[in-house]
Each structure stands twice: as structure tokens, then as C-alpha cells.
């Protein structure tokens, strides 16, 4: 054969200077302590691997520790964490990081030989340990992690990568992951992951485009420096369409068959034909080696290939030498494995096999792998080969082993996949139940639990329903009860409360109360929740009390803790009281003794929110901090309760006025970050761009997405809309755009009505804030003597106040039963916002306005410093109108001190404006913007420019019509203006407005 230099040689990289420079810039940032990640996209053969090799070589020259991981295409079978296993093994094999691995034993589960199994919670411990280990290594030398072929990644790999990239920030870590963009069809699982990753601050996406024609020509000349006919070069450039791999293969074909007219006059019908043509140039031994190797995938171990090929040693060596020498295979790692130089080579070789030949080789691999010293780790590959060889009985057994191994390493997505494979072929295996040791009902139940762990609530419901459909009167009652209460928990996750209630009730009826049993205890724990959700409070109470007694008699500590928390949410004396604190403290002790971290975190969350609801912000912050630390210690920082604790922490910081601390940490889930928008608005910062992102989806679309497998992320989007809602309404209100404020109110209320519950208590706050805008606009219409406008805005205010009062009545009467552990409850916060709504409504007629604002101010004494200041502002206005100027002055001073401390500029301006208008002492020194006009004349001028009449100016500034007329005359004289319109124009020109 003609020797054609390949990308693996020393040929300089062609046409990729910009991309390499951009990647090196990312590495420089990582070396400086700013963690970075680049998602490198490109079509098959476009040169992603060559660029990565160039960058990794430069990285090593810059003292980076470099670790490679590869994803593998093994059909529909998942091999959990494969690229991370590669990465960690390469780091461990170097021997340079033994001390770090000794400190993070959890990661050994992904190394050769494995380690202890993972339960449902310790999967997150593994994630945290991987990040901690990488961070520790990067403190010695910068670390570059490279993952190739991410389009073949299993679900657990995608989740671990997402977790890693969302957590790295100040570490000396760079991550580069490549994937085929042309493989990402609309339903490809990587698409959703990429959508989440690109929103992370550390992540950027880079598209590797085809090479321009001059670069392809340079590549051809570099690969074949000898004289080549210009027409051949042009034809290769044209036909390769900028794809370097295609160009190489076309060049090789042209050189190897210079007299073949098909090369000069046109391409073979498909690239696969061209590649197969290259394989045919190999020796028979070389062809056999690549055919057998292709069945294993892109990478194959030497020992496995040796046994599968069944050639004498000298012939095997000759075949390998031929395949490697012709750049089809290349040695990998420590030389104990081989990879196809490009995935397209493996795909073309595999596709050229006859169906029978393909099945036979798969069977050989399956049998060889069954003799593996660590059969659990090879179970997924065996399942793949058995399926491809049509050996369904052994495929079923291997798939179950693969599910067990995936559970062992904490990969619920792969557990689910393997169990679904078992279920698909179950009926085709006559002795399936005998092989497995139990019925397919148990497999369905286990699969539903795996789906729940993956966050695919709808799939969990479908699988549990299938298990229930298969259950008959002869099915063990204990197992049927487990199916029913599992289905109930799954139905709650998809907001099917009534159906969930019916299933948990049926589960309880299946198991007698005596003697006590663990199944009935957990059925009761589920029924407490579902009965509460549908408003059957007495039934929930009865089930909870019975379950608690049984849990105590059986010594099931975590169930005791869980039930204590649930019962406390039902009790008249809630978690915001001293008695509630005592009960939760005891529940926390039980949870810690049981070792159930999930129940422990639920209890800490309830302690935190109980303190928040009770108005004790200091204690709430202490408990949230404790919970977040505990979650980090146990690897549970990404689970739901710690995430909600971040929300409570931000709420408490906002209420207590610790805004700088609240906004300092921006690396938070979307719904937590959305709270910071309220601070931005209060400080006069525009949030239009953020609102556009958060509200890019309609309520109906959110409702539909909430039924998707990625429901948790969707729910965060819903919470983000709710948490950003007050900021959106406030921004419009400060801009005096009441129409926009009401539109925002209606839009956010629609999210509550459509997606959550119409009487969700946050609606009280939204109504109160919208009432502020409505009352402001009513006052503007009153000043303008616009009776129609006043009527319109009074009608709007009537609807808003009724909505707030109705929601509060709904909760106080017990008619509403929000989900347990909800972020809002009828405590001092909700009562304060109802008082605020009443006070805003009182502005329409100024009837009892002073007393209403006094009550609102007192209601916010639980600790909301900003809202207290806003209430003092409005109380001061009401006091001025009532002639109580001295007290008004005191409130303005107090509110201004708070507003200045918080840097709440719009509120400071509003307080200064009312102080000037009312000529209060708190107005301070005269306005010095321009000595030509006095402070009062500036106030009059601003209203004059808005088209106000003298009477309207007088009403707004609390002065008589005559006084307003005198001020207008003085302004016209000082500005040398002949009319009010000219005065406004001159004022704008001189910058007075």
C-alpha cells in the first residue's frame, strides 16, 4: 500500500488556529483559578479529535494534568459513568495522586475493582467526591478533563457532567467535551443536557465548522508533499466539503488506485463504500482483525480481541500491525487496548459485516466477557452482545446483572434502562421467572423506583400502574400494598392528588393494623400526605397517629421522624411555635440516629421554614446554613430539600435586609436567583433582560412541561416566575406604568392558577403590590380630574383587594390545604401582606388611611425592614394629608435611613420628594441643582412639564391653586419663557428635568 501520513503523525494542524487559540484561552483562565468548560461540537470527521490532541499537548507543556475519557456506542445499552471511569483510572494509574484518592474513597466505586455499593442517597456523595477529588488535584497543578463523543454518553454520565459543571467555579479546572452535532436529532437525550449546560456561567459552546477550501488544499499538500495533479487536488477539495477525514480517505484512495478511473472521474456511491475499499487493501489477517474489533465498538481490549479473533499469535500480530500501520487502528492507553482512529471507520467496518457473521461475533464476545474476573462490571456489555446475538435468555440475566451494577455505582438512569430491557424480553423467555427468582411485578416496581430517582415522574407512574395491572387476587397483599403506596407517591409528583389519595387509602386497607408492619407504616406515612393534599385532614391525622405508634413499636426511626414532621404540619400548633420547634428537634434526633439523610434534611428544612414563618430570621438563617452544610457533607446538595433551603436562606436575607449577602452568591438555581431581582428593582437596576428569559414560556406551556421527565427543572422555572413576579410588578410601579404592573400581576397569577393552586398564599403579596400601582394611578387620575379613569382603576382595585382577602379567608377557614413543606404559610408574613393590601386600598378614599398604614407598619414588625420602610413612606403621606406633619417627618427620617442603608435609590428619591413637597424638616438642604430655581420651583417645574394645570399641581404638592400659579409665573420669568410649553422645552435643554 502507498504510505499516507495521517492525523496521528506529526503533520501540523491545518486551518484551526482560531479554535485552538480559543481553547487555550479557556485553559489560561482555568490556570488562573477561573474554572472553565468548553463543549466542542462538530460533524463526524470534521477534526474534533485532532484539535483536542493539539490542545492537550499544549496543556501538558503548560504543566496541566490531563485526563481523557471516552463515551462508547454500545447500541441502546448504557455503561454508567464510562468516561469518568476512564478519567479517574488514568489519574489513579499515574501514581501522582494517591494521597488525594485516599481522602476520597467514594470515587473508588468508579475505578477498576470497584468499591462499596451506592444506596439511593450516596449517589450524590459520589458526585460530590468526584468534584472534591478534581479540585484537590487542581490545587497542585491545573487539571484538564477531556471527554470525547459525548453524544454516546449514558444518562448518569450526563448527570454527573452537569453536576460537575454547575459546581466548579474558582478551581483550576478546565473541561472540554466533544460531541457530534450532526447526530443530535430532535429527541436525542443530549439536547436537553446541552440546553442546561450552556446557561451555566463556566460553560461555553464552540462549533467546529468544515475547513475552507484553501485549508483543505493545504492539508492535502501536507499529507502528500509529492507532486499531485492539480485536478485531483481540486476534486478532493470539492468532494470532501471541508471535512478533513473525508479528504484523507479520498487522498488515500487516489494514491492507492492511481489508474482507477472511478477515483478521478467521481466518488464511490457513499463514503462507507470508500472506507470499505480501504479495508480491502489490508491483508486477510488485517481485515479479520478490524472486522472482529468493530463488533466490540470503537475501543477493544487486547486480550478480548486476541481471544475473539482466534488467530495464531504471529498472524494476530501481523493483522494488528497491518491495521495500525494503515491508520485504521491505533494503540490506546498503556498499549493494552486499541481504538479505531475514527468512529466512522468502526461504523463502516461493522456495517459491512453480514448479519449472521455479526451475530456470531457478538456471541463470542458475550461468552468471553462472561468469564471476566469482575462479571458485574462487564454485565452491560454482555447484555449488549447477548441481545445482538439474539440470545434472549442470557440477555435477560445479563441485563438484570447490569441493572444491579448500575445501582451499585448510583446510576438510576441505567438501572431503569436495563430493567426496561428485561421487561421487553420477559415474555420471550419461557423460564424468565425461574431465572430471576421473582415475578415481573417486582421488576416493574423496581423500575418505577429507578424512574423516580431519575426524576421521570410520569414514567414512574406508568411503570407502577403496569405493576398494579399485573397484580391479581393471588398476589401477595404486602407486595400489592407496596405497589399502591408507591403509585400514590408517584402520582403526587405529577399533581394527581385525588388519584394518589385513592391509592394510598387502598394500600392501607390491604394491610391489617395489627400486628404492626413496616409496609403499613410507610403506607400510612404516604397516606398522611395524600389525605392532607385533598383536604381530608381528620383522615390524615388518624393515619399519621396510627403510623407513628406502629413505627415506635417497631423501632423504625426514620418513619417516626417523617411522621412527626407530617403530623406537625396538620396540627393547630404549627412548626413556627416553640412546641413545634421542640417536636422538630426530636424528629431531627431520630432521623440522625436512623441514618436516613433524606428524612434528616426534610426535618432541617422544616426547622428552617418554621423559624422563617415565625418571623425569627436569625434562627431561620442558622438552620438553613446547617442544612446546606449537612447536605454538602452527605453528598445531597443537589437534592430537593437543600435546594429549597437555599430559597429560604435568600428569603430570610431579603427580609432582614442583608441584601449584599443575598446577591453575593449568584451560582444558585434559577428560582433562587430570581429573588435577587427584587433587590435589583429596589436599587433602581433594570431587570428587563432577566424577565424576558424567565417569562419566555407561557403558563400553559409550563403546565405541559411539568409533566415531562425533567419536571424538577420545569418546577424551578415556575418558582422563578413566581419569585420574579413581585420584582416585575414593582419595576412597572416605580416607572408609573400601572397598566404594565397589572399585566404582570395577571400573567403571574395565571401561573398560580394554571400550574399550581389559585389560592397559593403568595397571591396575597402579588395583589398588594398590584394594588400599589392601581392606587398610584387612581391618584394620578384624581389629580387630572378624570372621572372615567378613576372609575376604571377603582374597579381594578376592587378586584385586587377581593382576591387578597378571599385567599386569606380560604386559608384561615381551612378550606385550602397546600402541600406539606410549602414555602408559604399563614404566618406573620401573610398577615402583613393582607394588611398592606388593605392600606393600599384605603388610599382610594383616604378613609382610615392613617390607621390602615399604622396597622400595616406594625404587621411588618416581624422583620421585613424594606417593607417597613415602604409602609413608613405611605404612612407619612397619610399623616401629611391629616395634618400630622411632625410625626410624618419622623417616619420619613426613619424610612430614609433604612433606604440609604439598603441602597434603595427609588425609595430614597420618593421620600425626598414627599419631604420637599410637604416642606418638612427631613427635606434637608435646599436643592442645589441650579441656583436659578428653588427646590419648590423644581418640583412645580417637573409637574408643569407633564402638562399639569395649576389646580393639579396644587393637589399633588399640597398647596393652593393660587400658590401654584405664583410658582409657575416665577418659573416663566426666570427662564425667560413666554408659555408653559416653552418653559418645559427650556428646562429640558438646560437639564433641569
Automatic annotation (TrEMBL):
One GO process term, biological-process aspect: regulation of DNA-templated transcription
Pfam families the UniProt entry points to: AAA_16 (PF13191), GerE (PF00196)
PROSITE patterns named among the record's database cross-references: HTH_LUXR_2 (PS50043)
Cellular component GO terms, alphabetical: cytoplasm
Residue ranges occupied by any HTH luxR-type domain in the UniProt entry: 926-991
Assigned keywords, A-Z: ATP-binding, Nucleotide-binding
Record's keyword annotation contains Methyltransferase: no
A single MF term (Gene Ontology): ATP binding
Protein name (database record): Regulatory LuxR family protein
Amino acid at each position: 500500500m502507498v504510505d499516507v501520513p495521517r492525523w496521528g503523525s506529526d503533520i501540523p494542524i491545518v486551518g484551526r488556529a482560531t479554535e485552538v487559540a480559543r481553547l487555550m484561552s479557556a485553559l489560561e483562565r482555568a490556570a488562573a483559578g477561573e474554572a472553565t468548560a468548553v463543549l466542542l461540537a462538530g460533524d463526524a470527521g470534521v477534526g474534533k479529535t485532532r484539535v483536542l490532541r493539539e490542545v492537550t499537548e499544549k496543556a501538558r507543556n503548560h504543566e496541566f494534568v490531563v485526563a481523557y475519557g471516552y463515551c462508547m456506542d454500545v447500541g441502546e445499552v448504557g455503561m454508567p459513568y464510562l468516561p469518568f471511569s476512564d478519567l479517574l483510572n488514568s489519574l489513579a494509574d499515574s501514581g501522582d495522586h494517591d494521597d488525594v484518592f485516599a481522602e476520597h474513597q467514594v470515587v473508588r466505586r468508579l475505578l477498576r475493582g470497584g468499591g462499596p455499593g451506592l444506596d439511593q442517597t450516596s449517589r450524590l456523595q459520589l458526585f460530590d467526591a468526584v468534584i472534591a477529588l478534581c479540585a484537590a488535584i487542581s490545587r497542585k497543578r491545573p487539571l484538564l478533563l477531556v471527554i470525547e463523543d459525548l453524544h454516546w454518553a449514558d444518562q448518569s454520565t450526563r448527570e454527573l457532567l452537569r453536576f460537575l459543571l454547575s459546581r466548579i467555579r474558582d478551581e483550576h479546572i478546565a473541561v472540554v467535551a466533544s460531541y457530534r452535532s450532526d447526530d443530535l436529532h430532535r429527541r436525542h437525550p443530549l439536547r436537553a443536557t446541552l440546553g442546561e449546560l450552556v446557561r451555566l456561567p463556566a460553560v461555553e459552546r464552540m462549533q467546529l465548522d468544515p475547513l475552507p477550501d484553501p485549508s483543505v488544499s493545504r492539508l492535502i499538500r501536507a499529507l502528500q508533499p509529492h507532486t499531485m495533479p492539480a485536478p485531483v487536488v481540486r476534486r478532493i477539495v470539492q468532494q470532501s466539503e471541508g471535512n478533513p477525514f473525508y479528504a484523507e480517505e479520498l487522498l488515500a484512495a487516489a494514491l492507492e488506485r492511481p489508474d482507477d478511473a472511478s477515483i478521478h472521474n467521481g466518488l464511490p456511491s457513499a463514503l462507507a463504500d470508500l472506507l470499505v475499499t480501504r479495508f480491502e487493501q489490508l491483508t486477510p489477517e488485517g481485515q479479520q482483525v478490524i472486522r472482529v474489533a468493530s463488533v466490540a465498538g470503537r475501543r477493544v481490549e487486547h486480550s478480548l480481541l486476541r481471544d475473539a479473533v482466534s488467530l495464531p499469535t504471529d498472524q494476530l500480530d501481523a493483522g494488528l500491525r497491518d491495521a495500525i500501520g494503515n491508520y485504521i487502528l491505533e494503540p490506546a492507553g498503556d498499549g493494552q487496548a486499541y481504538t479505531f482512529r475514527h468512529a466512522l471507520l468502526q461504523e463502516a467496518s461493522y456495517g459491512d459485516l453480514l448479519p449472521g457473521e455479526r451475530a456470531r461475533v457478538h456471541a463470542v464476545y458475550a461468552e468471553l466477557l462472561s468469564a471476566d474476573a469482575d462479571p458485574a462490571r462487564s454485565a452491560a456489555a454482555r447484555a449488549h452482545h447477548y441481545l445482538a446475538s439474539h440470545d434472549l435468555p442470557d440477555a435477560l440475566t445479563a441485563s438484570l446483572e447490569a441493572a444491579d451494577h448500575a445501582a451499585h455505582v448510583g446510576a438510576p438512569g441505567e438501572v431503569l434502562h436495563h430493567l426496561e430491557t428485561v421487561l421487553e424480553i420477559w415474555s420471550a423467555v419461557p423460564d424468565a421467572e425461574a431465572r430471576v427468582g421473582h415475578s415481573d411485578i417486582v421488576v416493574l416496581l423496581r423500575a418505577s423506583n429507578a424512574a423516580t430517582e431519575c426524576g421521570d415522574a410520569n414514567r414512574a407512574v406508568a411503570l407502577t400502574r403496569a405493576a398494579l395491572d399485573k397484580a391479581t387476587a393471588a398476589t401477595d397483599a404486602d407486595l400489592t400494598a407496596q405497589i399502591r403506596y408507591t403509585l400514590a407517591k408517584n402520582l403526587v409528583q405529577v399533581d394527581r392528588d385525588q388519584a394518589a389519595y385513592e391509592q394510598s387509602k387502598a394500600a392501607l386497607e390491604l394491610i391489617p393494623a395489627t400486628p404492626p408492619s413496616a409496609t403499613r407504616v410507610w403506607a400510612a406515612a404516604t397516606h398522611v400526605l395524600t389525605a392532607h393534599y385533598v383536604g381530608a385532614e381528620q383522615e390524615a391525622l388518624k393515619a399519621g397517629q396510627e403510623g407513628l405508634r406502629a413505627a415506635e413499636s417497631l423501632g423504625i426511626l426514620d418513619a417516626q421522624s417523617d411522621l412527626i414532621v407530617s403530623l406537625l404540619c396538620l396540627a393547630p400548633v404549627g412548626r413556627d411555635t416553640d412546641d413545634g420547634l421542640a417536636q422538630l428537634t426530636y424528629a431531627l434526633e431520630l432521623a440522625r440516629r436512623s441514618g436516613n439523610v433524606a428524612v434528616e434534611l426534610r426535618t432541617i428544612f422544616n426547622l428552617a421554614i418554621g423559624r422563617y414563618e415565625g418571623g425569627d430570621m436569625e434562627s431561620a438563617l442558622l438552620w438553613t446554613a446547617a442544612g446546606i452544610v449537612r447536605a454538602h457533607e452527605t453528598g445531597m446538595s443537589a437534592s430537593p430539600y437543600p435546594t429549597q433551603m437555599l430559597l429560604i436562606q435568600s428569603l430570610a436575607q431579603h427580609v432582614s435586609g442583608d441584601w449584599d449577602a443575598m446577591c453575593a452568591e449568584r451560582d444558585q438555581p434559577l428560582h433562587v436567583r430570581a429573588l435577587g431581582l427584587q433587590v435589583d428593582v429596589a436599587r433602581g437596576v433594570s431587570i428587563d433582560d432577566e424577565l424576558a428569559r424567565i417569562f419566555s414560556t407561557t403558563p400553559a406551556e409550563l403546565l405541559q412541561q411539568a409533566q415531562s421527565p425533567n419536571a424538577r427543572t420545569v418546577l424551578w422555572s415556575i418558582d422563578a416566575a413566581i419569585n420574579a413576579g413581585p420584582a416585575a410588578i414593582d419595576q412597572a410601579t416605580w416607572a408609573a406604568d400601572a397598566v404594565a404592573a397589572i399585566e404582570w400581576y395577571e400573567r403571574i397569577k395565571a401561573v398560580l392558577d394554571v400550574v399550581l393552586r389559585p389560592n397559593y398564599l403568595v397571591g396575597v403579596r402579588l395583589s398588594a403590590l398590584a394594588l400599589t400601582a392601581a392606587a398610584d394611578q387612581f391618584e394620578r387620575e384624581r389629580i387630572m380630574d378624570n372621572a372615567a379613569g378613576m372609575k376604571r382603576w377603582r374597579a381594578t382595585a376592587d378586584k385586587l383587594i377581593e382576591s387578597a382577602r378571599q385567599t386569606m379567608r380560604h386559608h384561615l377557614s381551612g378550606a385550602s390545604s397546600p402541600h406539606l413543606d410549602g414555602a408559604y404559610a399563614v404566618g406573620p408574613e401573610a398577615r402583613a401582606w393582607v394588611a398592606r393590601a388593605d392600606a393600599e386600598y384605603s388610599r382610594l378614599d383616604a378613609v382610615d388611611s392613617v390607621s390602615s398604614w399604622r396597622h400595616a407598619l406594625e404587621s411588618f414588625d416581624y422583620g421585613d425592614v424594606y417593607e417597613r420602610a415602604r409602609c413608613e413612606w405611605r404612612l407619612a403621606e397619610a399623616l401629611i394629608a391629616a395634618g400630622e406633619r411632625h410625626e410624618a417627618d419622623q417616619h420619613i427620617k426613619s424610612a430614609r435611613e433604612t433606604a440609604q442603608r439598603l441602597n434603595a435609590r427609588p425609595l430614597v428619591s420618593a421620600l425626598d420628594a414627599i419631604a420637599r413637597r410637604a416642606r418638612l424638616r427631613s427635606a434637608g438642604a435646599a436643592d442645589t441643582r441650579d441656583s436659578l430655581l428653588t427646590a419648590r420651583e423644581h418640583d412645580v417645574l417637573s409637574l408643569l412639564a407633564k402638562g399639569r394645570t395649576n389646580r393639579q399641581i396644587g393637589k399633588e404638592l399640597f398647596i393652593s391653586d393660587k400658590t401654584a400659579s405664583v410658582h409657575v409665573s416665577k418659573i416663566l420669568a426666570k427662564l425667560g419663557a413666554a408659555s408653559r410649553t416653552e418653559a418645559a422645552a427650556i428646562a429640558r435643554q438646560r437639564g433641569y428635568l
